[in-house]
Amino acid sequence: MSAPAEDARRVFAETFGGDEPHIAVFAPGRVNLIGEHTDYNGGFVLPMALPLITVTVGSPRDDGKICIVTTAQGADEPHKVEFETPSVDRPLTPGTPKWANYVKGVIQHYRAGPIPGFNAVIATSVPLGGGLSSSASLEVASYTFMQQLCQDDGDLVQKALACQKAEHTFAGVPCGIMDQFISVMGREGHALLIDCRSLEVKPLPLKDPKLSVLITNSNVRHELTGSEYPTRRKQCEEAAKALGKLTLRDASMEDLEAKKENLSEVCYRRARHVISEIERTTKAAEALENGNYQLFGKLMVESHNSLRDDYEVSCPELDELVSIAVEIPGVYGSRMTGGGFGGCTVTLLETSVAERTKQHIQEKFRGSPTFYITKPSAGSGVLPK
Ligand code: GAF
């Protein structure tokens, strides 16, 4: 059993006593290999699900009450919440603690009809605020729990969309679809090329034992609920409008150059990042399919530079981590991953240099990094008994 599953079962027994929990589900965090800040522009992304997971265990209760405990390190207090199941006259609303909003949002948007009460414990190995989608994994684990509780199956795309809606309405973050989508759809041994306009998915094998994915957490806290993310989103919408397009996915570099005068300097740079990043992502997917890791790595570094200079969502710690990583021969490329302003970098490298690269970063980086050498893993599901 995974560490968070053991943790959740132990705390369930301590808190609620009695029988083993009837339901035990999980949903993974993710790392995005390339395609950053493209999802809400209808573009392409290339994430993979991680073996870092959020687990929810629990059992129904028959008095219409819901009691949830989290064991997550860094979650705001209190770590236990109790409330009535929602009804039409008494919907759930966001409040404090913040961690519970992700769960409440999913419960509220789960379905129109009544739901049973339940006791549940949440545990996670996804670092909170690390840019590895701790929020989406909590939403998707909560939704998977609700499906088990209500014995519903349901469509996978609808599941991802409902979790995204929960984040918009209960956490106030106007996120794209990438994080919830990969947490639902992730596939072992594969990264997924997701077209965020059509929601079509192409699984790309990522199983070469000579190739590794190293995640380095800067441990600088990333806060997506700040104003920066919504501001970027608005600037992209403004740029698309000035170019006469529905989204930036519909615009080319030629369109951008031809209508440069219609855009503010900032919106021009934001659009230049998005349009070039969408192009880099499709090229990178092709490179991965052809085993051209050199090209993939080069595109990763270009992506990082564009996020740093044009999109302005990097920070000195992430820039430093990327520069240090690419010094090691055998490292193909490195970049910040996720929303930015802290969190993690992702590095593609030869397996044989993974330990050396970690050591090199440890020695040269000014902060206290944490490392994960990781493999593409499965999307959300039920845990074995
Ligand atoms: C965050 C968001 F939640 C995603 O939707 C995506 O926009 C990402 O930042 C940036 O690529 O993780």
From TrEMBL:
<dbReference type="GO" id="GO:0005829">
    <property type="term" value="C:cytosol"/>
</dbReference>
<dbReference type="InterPro" id="IPR006204">
    <property type="entry name" value="GHMP_kinase_N_dom"/>
</dbReference>
<dbReference type="Pfam" id="PF08544">
    <property type="entry name" value="GHMP_kinases_C"/>
</dbReference>
<dbReference type="GO" id="GO:0033499">
    <property type="term" value="P:galactose catabolic process via UDP-galactose, Leloir pathway"/>
</dbReference>
<comment type="subunit">
    <text>Homodimer.</text>
</comment>
<comment type="pathway">
    <text>Carbohydrate metabolism; galactose metabolism.</text>
</comment>
<feature type="domain" description="GHMP kinase N-terminal">
    <location>
        <begin position="101"/>
        <end position="187"/>
    </location>
</feature>
<keyword id="KW-0808">Transferase</keyword>
<keyword id="KW-0299">Galactose metabolism</keyword>
<dbReference type="InterPro" id="IPR020568">
    <property type="entry name" value="Ribosomal_Su5_D2-typ_SF"/>
</dbReference>
<feature type="domain" description="GHMP kinase C-terminal">
    <location>
        <begin position="284"/>
        <end position="366"/>
    </location>
</feature>
<dbReference type="Pfam" id="PF00288">
    <property type="entry name" value="GHMP_kinases_N"/>
</dbReference>
<dbReference type="InterPro" id="IPR006206">
    <property type="entry name" value="Mevalonate/galactokinase"/>
</dbReference>
<dbReference type="InterPro" id="IPR014721">
    <property type="entry name" value="Ribsml_uS5_D2-typ_fold_subgr"/>
</dbReference>
<dbReference type="InterPro" id="IPR019741">
    <property type="entry name" value="Galactokinase_CS"/>
</dbReference>
<keyword id="KW-0547">Nucleotide-binding</keyword>
<keyword id="KW-0597">Phosphoprotein</keyword>
<dbReference type="InterPro" id="IPR019539">
    <property type="entry name" value="GalKase_N"/>
</dbReference>
<dbReference type="InterPro" id="IPR000705">
    <property type="entry name" value="Galactokinase"/>
</dbReference>
<keyword id="KW-0119">Carbohydrate metabolism</keyword>
<keyword id="KW-0418">Kinase</keyword>
<keyword id="KW-0067">ATP-binding</keyword>
<comment type="similarity">
    <text>Belongs to the GHMP kinase family. GalK subfamily.</text>
</comment>
<dbReference type="GO" id="GO:0005524">
    <property type="term" value="F:ATP binding"/>
</dbReference>
<dbReference type="InterPro" id="IPR006203">
    <property type="entry name" value="GHMP_knse_ATP-bd_CS"/>
</dbReference>
<protein>
    <recommendedName>
        <fullName>Galactokinase</fullName>
        <ecNumber>2.7.1.6</ecNumber>
    </recommendedName>
</protein>
<feature type="domain" description="Galactokinase N-terminal">
    <location>
        <begin position="12"/>
        <end position="60"/>
    </location>
</feature>
<dbReference type="InterPro" id="IPR036554">
    <property type="entry name" value="GHMP_kinase_C_sf"/>
</dbReference>
<dbReference type="InterPro" id="IPR013750">
    <property type="entry name" value="GHMP_kinase_C_dom"/>
</dbReference>
<dbReference type="GO" id="GO:0004335">
    <property type="term" value="F:galactokinase activity"/>
</dbReference>
<comment type="function">
    <text>Catalyzes the transfer of a phosphate from ATP to alpha-D-galactose and participates in the first committed step in the catabolism of galactose.</text>
</comment>
<dbReference type="Pfam" id="PF10509">
    <property type="entry name" value="GalKase_gal_bdg"/>
</dbReference>
